[in-house]
What we know:
The protein has 205 residues and is α+β, with helices and mostly antiparallel strands. The chain contains five helices and seven strands; from the N terminus they run H-E-E-E-E-E-E-E-H-H-H-H.
Amino acid sequence: MNEPLPLCDARTDLKPIEVLFLQQLPEPSHELVESPQCELQREHSGVHIALAQASGPDSWWLVWAPGNAQLTARGRNMDRRLHEMDDCPATQGESEDECLLPARHAGAHSFEMESSGPRVPSAFARKKMLRALRESLDDDERAELEEMESLLASPEGDPLPLITQNEALVVTTLLGQVALDDWLMEDLVLRVVERMDTRMQALGR
């Protein structure tokens, strides 16, 4: 098996105006990467590019010029821009892995290169995945989840002196970690954490 080709190591920081634009896109697929890395092959020609956000079927790429060079867009010279681009149509042989770069990109296809690393799915994307996960549950798993949801939806009942304030801080931290790692439990966990945090604030934490 051939070794994957190295990625370009150029990076840039998103500017506040770019972050604002990207945050307003509908149906975002992933959390924003504050310092995106160029996703082209090392020593490529031309501008650097990195996927800034996928919004539904649309892919928005950050394009920036190397060094102090300029790029021309709509008759204007600039050093960077956000640009909507079509996907590269290339696939890899029998595996049919798709190239994740834009059409007419410089250098090798993404499936021939090192990975730029996984992106964290956005809240919108996690909700879509959650619906698919729920549909894949067996009857016992679904019943257990629905029972927990029912408990949180019902009146809270009498408070029980089970843990200290410091222990509650540890529990909320651990539950927050569960929410990051288990999307199926995310909504339940966040609701419990919010309730406990509200009570701790009322105690003057």
